[in-house]
Amino acid sequence: MTQALNNVRSLLLGPSGSKPPDYRAVPSSPESELLGEADKPKRQDGMVYFCFWIMGAGCLLTWSALMCTFPYLVQLFPPDSTRGRNLPSTLSSFYCFGLVVFMGLAQNGVGRGSPSKRLNWSSSLLLISSILFTFPLLPLLLPHLTSTLLLLVLIAFTLLFAHATSYFQSSVLGLSSLWGSSQVLAVMSGQGGVAVLVSFAQLSLAVLAAFRPSSGEEEGKMGLVPSVGLWILTSLGAGLCLLAFRYLSRRPEYERVVELVSNREETKGDGEGILGGVLRKNALVYVAVAYTFAVTLSVFPAITTTITSTHHPTPRLLQPDVFIPLHFLIFNLGDYIGRTYLPLIPSILITSHPRILILALSRTLFIPLFLACNTSTTIPLINSDILYFLIALTCGLSNGYIGSMCMIVATTPSLNPRISEEEKDFAGTLGAFFLVGGLALGSVASFGVKGLVG
């Protein structure tokens, strides 16, 4: 913990008398000039793009599955349990703060040698922990634990997921930044894509379960079968991450990246000075990406999982066990579109750091909008399921769009001349650190926001 805090402190403190960064916007130019020939996606790189997409998906694989399992896990606690009611916020906080601490520790390895070892062990840990959570933990152990022990086991596995994910994500974003901006976009797209796949699988299983004969007591609750099915898919996805990296490690481009890192070690030595310089150059973009995800996590899923349909009586397919997975899918579809496609539109690709920050700050509006919907303890000001889903879709679109744009601008010298070619992987891993920092702040803020609805 102390080492991680020292790493963060060393990033924030630059040498005395250092020149302040220039935050002027990059002049407008045609898309081909902005992206640069080396950064354009190439047809023959389709498999490389797909592999980075898979590894990007792996960065949020366990988190997406865990979030979608919250409704079932809450049901394992007594109905009047405060621990159960606060479970989404509790696990979100432990996961996100675990990411921050472990990501701070992971900064020690940035730019030092081949990423093969770190990617191999972190992806293997993702696979093993996902399998253990799928079986025997979820179906056999968790339903029979006391509330206290149940909470402790869930926190322990949440931290295990955070540990594996932090080192995996740091390595993947560093590698993709050195490879090119198309691969950075592939990683960001994969992170959104896995959330869509997981939430679609969850919704499909919930709909199928809704048509099975059940007692009135069970109706409207999220069942065990959809949760286990979801984690089986998660385990398969973790295995694909291992295969994707092994394919990339045999590509000639990978050898070029390894050679670049080795040459830099010989000439630059310790990367701590590079990290501090990159932080000062990209400070506003990093604040923007942190704030973007902080706003999202302050309401999603802690608040959104308390919002139910406004229809009375509620149709079977709009009861909480289906309605909540449906809102996950709608948000994640928006997030995926925002991550994958909106940054490719030249007219809305913003490269001015202050403007990106202003755009991120404007997302604060989503907090009162969600609070105005049909939460379980308040009279809704927005008394419409359609309007609620539109708000969720817009929130997802803006989250993905700003998040991807921040990461691309921060790591692409042709869009951000302040960054040199040899600083790209440092810029990528720092972006990942601030992204998870925003998640951590948002998860803590969710306790305060949830207090507004009782």
Per-chain topology:
Layout: H1 2-12, H2 31-35, H3 46-59, H4 61-75, H5 82-85, H6 87-106, H7 116-141, H8 147-179, H9 181-210, H10 224-248, H11 252-268, H12 272-281, H13 283-299, H14 320-340, H15 353-361, H16 366-371, H17 385-411, H18 424-451
Family: Belongs to the SLC29A/ENT transporter (TC 2.A.57) family.
Keywords: Membrane, Transmembrane, Transmembrane helix, Transport
GO molecular function, one term: nicotinamide riboside transmembrane transporter activity
What would your notes on this structure say?
The chain has 454 residues and is mostly helical. It has a single domain, classed as MFS general substrate transporter like domains (Growth Hormone, Chain: A), CATH 1.20.1250.20. Helices cover 70% and strands 0% of the residues. The chain has helices spanning 2-12, 31-35, 46-59, 61-75, 82-85, 87-106, 116-141, 147-179, 181-210, 224-248, 252-268, 272-281, 283-299, 320-340, 353-361, 366-371, 385-411, 424-451. The model is unreliable at 8-44 and 216-220 (pLDDT under 50). It is a multi-pass membrane protein. Its main location: membrane. Residues 1-37 are annotated as: Disordered.
**Uncertain runs with pLDDT below 50, 5 residues or more?**
8-44, 216-220
How many DSSP-defined strands? Answer: 0
Top CATH class = Mainly Alpha
In which range does the helix fraction lie? over 70%
Number of helices: 18
Mean pLDDT: 83
Note the main sheet.
none
Q: Helices and strands, in N-to-C order? A: HHHHHHHHHHHHHHHHHH
N/C terminus separation: 34 Å
Which CATH architecture?
Up-down Bundle
CATH topology: Growth Hormone, Chain: A
Could you state the CATH homologous superfamily?
MFS general substrate transporter like domains
Oligomer: single chain
Overall number of structural domains: 1
Strand portion, in percent?
under 5%
Main structural class = mainly alpha
Q: What is the rounded Rg? A: 22 Å
General form: globular
